[in-house]
Amino acid sequence: MMKRGILLGIFIAILIIMTGCSTDTEKREQAKQISQVEQETTAPDIPVKIVGGNGQQLRLRDIYIDKPVFLNFWASWCPPCVKEMPHIDALYKKYGDKINFVVINVDSNEGDVKAFLQKNSFEMPIYRGDLNSISEAYHVNAIPVSFIIDSRGKIISQHAGGMSEREMEKFLGPIL
Predict the structure, then answer these.
(1) Most buried residue among 26, 53, 81, 175 by CB atoms closer than 10 A?
(2) Which is it for strands 69-74 and 145-149: parallel, antiparallel or unpaired?
(3) What is the model's pLDDT at position 15?
(4) d(CA 80, CA 77)
(5) Is the model's pLDDT at 41 over the cut of 70?
(6) What are the DSSP calls for the chain, one per residue?
(7) What pTM did the predictor assign?
(8) 148 Cβ contact partners less than 8 Å away, ≥ 6 residues apart
(9) Looking at 17-26, 44-53, 80-89, 163-172, which range is the least confident one?
C-alpha cells in the first residue's frame, strides 16, 4: 500500500513538472515568435517626445518619411526591455544610416527613464509616449514589442517579447 502511494506521488510530481515545463516552453516560443502583420497596414501616427530634448512633440509619420523604421515600445521597469536595449543600440550604430530607430519609453514617470538613461549610455535617440494612446493605436498589451515600418508608413512585421541581437538583426532583414 505504501509502495503504491509513493509511486502515485512520483507520478503526480512528474506530471506537474512536465506540465510546468511545457507551459514555460510554450510561453518562450510565443514570446520569440515573429509574426507578420497584415500587409499594407498603415502605422498609426502617434505623438512622441525626445527624452532630454526641448519638449518638442514629434509625430511618428515625420520620422519614417525618409527611411524605414524599427519601432520599439519599452519601459525601464521591464527586465526583457532593459536586456534588449544594448542590442538595439548596437544595431542603431550599425544600421542607423539605413533605418530610423524609434525607441519609445512608456514609463509613467519621466524621471524613471531619465535615471535609467543616466546609468546607461546609448547613442540612439530615446522617445517618450503615452502608454494609453500607444496601447490603443498599436494594440500593445505587453512590452517589449517591436514593429518594422517601411518608408511608406506601412507595418510589415511585428515581434512581441524580448530579442537577442541576432534575433533582432534577423527581424530587421526585410528592410536591410
Answers:
(1) 81
(2) antiparallel
(3) 33
(4) 9
(5) yes
(6) -HHHHHHHHHHHHHHHHHHHHHHHHHHHHHHH-EEPPPTTEEPP--EEEETTS-S-EEEHHHHTTSS-EEEEEE-TT-HHHHHHHHHHHHHHHHHTTTSEEEEEE--S-HHHHHHHHHHS---S-EEE--HHHHHHHH---SSSEEEEE-TTSEEEEEEES---HHHHHHHHGGG-
(7) 0.77
(8) 68, 69, 70, 71, 155, 156, 157, 158, 171, 172, 174, 175
(9) 17-26
Does the pLDDT value for residue 62 go beyond 90? no
List Cα–Cα distances, 173 to 37, 44, 58, 151, in angstroms.
15, 22, 27, 15
pLDDT number for residue 63: 78
What residues have CB less than 8 Å from 99, skipping those under 6 apart? 67, 68, 69, 70, 172, 175, 176
Q: Which residue has the cell 516552453?
A: 25
Fill in the amino acid letter for 56: Q
Q: Which residue has the cell 515545463?
A: 21
Q: pLDDT digit string (tens) for 107-118? A: 998 899 999 999
Query: The C-alpha cell of 148 is what?
Result: 518594422
